[in-house]
Amino acid sequence: MPTSRRVSVASPPVPSLWSRRRFLGAGAALSAGAALGACSLNRGSTPDNSAEADEGAGFAGEVLDPPWAKPDVTFTALDGQPFPFVERTEGALSLLFFGYTNCPDICPVYLQTVASAREAIGTGPGSKPDVYFVGVDVARDTPEVMETYLANIDPTFVGLTGSIEAINAGLEAVYSPPVQLGEPDADGAYEVGHAAYGTVYLGSDDKGHRRYPFGVRQQDWVRDLPRLEEGRFR
């Protein structure tokens, strides 16, 4: 049974998960297709057959007490149009995740798990949460790359980008450190630091009531998403 713990934000907490991963820079001469292929997963690659979702079980992830306000930030949609996050997500169950398209493990696995859970739910409450993926590596996470990347996972997921100032403001709103990019080595590889959790905002009050770290299973999402859609979070 998953355990749920309370996160108090009277003082900004240190994120429970912080990922630093190396990926190849321009000197590696990797094609965009090869890079995306290494990071994306097919829909059936990470099934969770351990058990069916138990509606009587507790929630996965961590409850946020007090709840978090949405980032009052205007990102940029992949078509180049402004995307004021508070306004555009009003009244909808929304999951916000910061990552990068060249991430070799955490980002694609996290997003794929959510995509597989949506598919498993099928229809009804929890089947269509709005999932937002903000690319933190502005040099590499171009609109074209992000569009292809998300299409290989779930074409309904929304990619967002923006200036490094806008992205860092969004990270600050989820109590995460700013984007950290390491110095490239001789091969052009460098580290990218990003928080390894997603924040869920309920449609009922537009507040963040839970965050879900990397490692939450598909069956946990299948159980939690319908309840979150109904405004329940504990």
Task: Describe the protein.
Helices cover 25% and strands 26% of the residues. With 234 residues, it is an alpha+beta fold. It has a single domain, classed as Glutaredoxin (3-Layer(aba) Sandwich), CATH 3.40.30. The strands form two sheets. The chain has a nine-stranded mixed sheet. A three-stranded antiparallel sheet has the order 2-10-9, with no helix packed on it. Strand 6 (94-99), helix 3 (106-121) and strand 7 form a beta-alpha-beta unit. Helix 3 (106-121) packs across helix 6. The longest helix is centred in the middle third of the chain and has 16 residues, at 106-121. It is globular, with a radius of gyration of 17 Å. The two termini are 14 Å apart.
User: How does CATH name the architecture?
Assistant: 3-Layer(aba) Sandwich
DSSP helical segment count: 6
How many domains, in number, for the residues? 1
**Can you tell me the residue ranges where pLDDT is under 50 for at least 5 consecutive residues?**
8-51
CATH topology: Glutaredoxin
Shape summary: globular
- Termini distance? 14 Å
Secondary-structure-derived class: alpha+beta
> Quick check: average pLDDT?
82
The level of helicity is 25-40%
Q: In sequence order, what are the helices and strands, one letter per element?
A: EEHEEEHEHEHEHEEEEH
The percentage of residues in β strands lies in 25-35%
Q: Tell how many strands the DSSP assignment holds.
A: 12
**Strand order in space, largest sheet:** 1-3-12-11-6-7-8-4-5
Rg over C-alpha atoms, rounded to the nearest angstrom = 17 Å
